[in-house]
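Sample A.
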Amino acid sequence: MGLAEVEFRDTAAIVTMRGEEPGHRLSSAMAEEVRAAIERAGAEPHVRALILQGAGVHFSVGADLKERAALPAKRWKEHHEIFERLAATLQAIPQPTIAAVRGWALGGGAELALGCDIVVASSDARIGQPEALRGLVPGMGGPQFLQRRLPHGLAAYMVYTGAPIRAAEALALGLVTFVDEDPLARALAIAAEIAKAAPGAVRALRRLLQREPANFADAYAEELAAWRQAVESGDAAEGAQAFIGKRPAVFRDPS
């Protein structure tokens, strides 16, 4: 069994992430398999909606910091390119996307969930962007997705503090679309509703929705510049090493 798989049900494609349990950490190998699975599903003409989920009790806790911490500083940018391609592929496919979220969706996992058009979360779901606590900024679209779904102050709170948001609160805030104890079943029901609409109209609407409030490609380029600056500063390596070593991180003073 691979790190990602595609299952077709009627007009829906289900992409399931199967990283290392229990949190499905996004290693570079897993990110590439998830990207390829999304691309494969998006290329199928009969697919009218794509559902993204994690196997088991969690969606994904984000990047595999053990893998990243072992890299020399000069390889961090190269290593991140696969995650950039994954983020771009999720936005580029023509079909609407639905995240079925159980348990933790953190960091890159949160960005994959929030990068979907519709998010269905179980009541035990927790969504957070803890990158700043690790010396980084989100690098897969997180700031844009949060600003599209939340008022500025709430988006700022999430990225500045890294605090995870519980499903009930996330629903009240508009961070997730629905809370359901069976996220996959609800996502499949939504996919069936989408399949009733004209596919050309739905695909055009997806493109239009992606352009509001900002063009993803342009804003993402700025986000990646900030991500690379964090890597070059040494804060990202310190954050990863501190996390692995279970110690407080000591970040540089930018003044």
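Sample B, a different protein:
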Amino acid sequence: MTSSADIAQMEFEEALRELEQIVKTLEEGKSPLKVAVDLYERGVLLKKHCDGILESLQLRVNQISSDKNGGVRLEQLEVES
């Protein structure tokens, strides 16, 4: 496992793989309590990191536009290939 400081540098897929492994390990229930708590805490940090990545990507996919009444709405960004 990498250190907590390294989580911020992880790509989404890497963080998700580690989070999945932590969940699997915790579900097995064979870890000592301290190890399980440490894994749980790391899992929370990994989840927050993944959520942050997804949120920033969602903002890139959506664009903000205004309607004729001056209101703001999100529209799907059309990407030309």
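Observation for Sample B: Residues 33-61 form the longest helix (29 residues).
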